[in-house]
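User
Here is a favour to ask of a fellow structure person. I am asking you to supply a protein in sequence and structure-token form. Please set it down just below, with no commentary around it:

Assistant
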Amino acid sequence: MIKKIIAVFFAIIMLFSLSGCSSKEAKLKDGYYTAHIDGFEIGYGWQEYVTICVSNGEIVTVEYNATTPTGFVKSWDTAYMRTMNPVYKTYPNNYTRRYANQLLEKQSADIDMISGATESGESFKLLVEAAIEKAKIGDCSVAVVSY
């Protein structure tokens, strides 16, 4: 009888220890998850956002951008691109895609900063972390992130 109790006890311990090692992070639930910065940037008027699509537990698409209160998209701002690119060697339509590609490759907010777009990179990380937290529990409501 004691041998059976010990065997059951060890079996339970093994089950708990194996379940703790099966995944470093909780599996993401399928769906679309969005996070945006609370309010619009003072002086610039942009509100950054990230939307991720999760399928089969993996992030399969990413949209990272910013809009004005009227809905104008930062990546479409050609004048801003022409001003930013000569100085910083990047511009919104470039760095937003590069950050999104890093997220797809790494499946985490642990991205490398792009020279000339580090402030946007920090925002991107915060937004992605918030969207991933929503995806872990399957909550498709928009996450609002304070900067």
In short: DSSP finds four helices and four strands in the chain. The first strand starts at residue 31 and ends at 37. Residues 79 and 85 are 10 Å apart (CA to CA). Strands lie at 31-37, 47-55, 58-67, 143-145.
